[in-house]
Amino acid sequence: MPASSNSLLLGTAKGLVIIDLIRNPKIVEVHFAGFAVNMVFVDERNGRWWIGVSHKHWGQKLHYSDTHGADWYEIPAPKFNGAKLPNGSVAKLRQIWCMQSGGGDQPDVLWLGTDPGGLFVSKDGGKTFNLVEGLWNHPSRRNESQWFGAGSDFPYIHSIVLNPKNSNHLYVAVSCAGVFESRDNGATWQARNKGLTAAYLPNPNAEVGHDPHALKIPGSHANVLWQQNHCGIFLSTDAGETWKDVSANSGLPSYGFALAVDDNRPARAWVIPADSDEKRIAPNLELKVFETNNYGSSWEDVSNGLPYHFAFDIALRQAFTQRDDYLVFGTTNGNVYLSKGPKTAWQTIAENLAKVNCTVLTN
Q1: CB-CB contact of 215 with 159 (8 Å)
Q2: Domains and CATH numbers, the chain
Q3: pTM (predicted TM-score)
Q4: pLDDT tens, 116-135?
């Protein structure tokens, strides 16, 4: 049967898994079984589900459903159409990383981030996508010490966030390059990395060359930006003009990929640490979640209910999400944990799935 509207969508390395959350959480459907689902997005304007699927033979595919998965339709994946990388090679789509909708005054606009680091825009509801030339041709991209791969051969765009009060104002996060902002609907772009630290660069305070792992705006709070970075957890309260490291003196592990923010309380956020880019395991083999309620001035261990002993799994950058009273994350070992209610406390709702790439809570 089709999934209910209160569902959890999991993009895994072996398919799209749908969990019904209305009653006791349970898996109700699996779509595209056996294929990696790297991107899941629900367009709140019309309820449409979007997924990006990776086929080892056929490459990247883009699908949507208007019936909660009862029917799926494929549309052409974006193409670079001869655009070249700084090394002179022709860019080819390697992965669809993320999607974001335009504002309420842009009902047919969709944004798409890819590997290599292309930002695409559709102005016809996803029928066609065009490369955003203003970002692709940004002067900093020509310098391979400023735009470079992190866990991939090429830089990639994994986060797109929209100013909830201005549809022409958006940000993207690039690994590695940093955060870029446009205030004119993607026509021009400025680097927004002041205050970030890139310990791996000769100049740790370089304008470009940073590695944001996740970037989020909490709900309608347009001036607040949270970032889990390769080198710490950073907060901006001036719309990205400056960043502050809110993990440096906290005592918690500052490296990680996953970040969730409270849409109603911008001072509240959660992170799931990981042990270094080389190891990518839970620190001390303990799977833990930390929460702040004061913009990162202090952090609390809120891991109650997690089987954290001898935990080798971590949560990836798209695999941690918050909505209303729900907080959920999936791990690289295919385990899924849910917290429901005002106090963070965890229950296991799925085990032994394939690696969880992304999670989305529907309404």
Answers
A1: yes
A2: 75-361 (2.130.10.10)
A3: 0.96
A4: 999 999 999 999 999 999 99
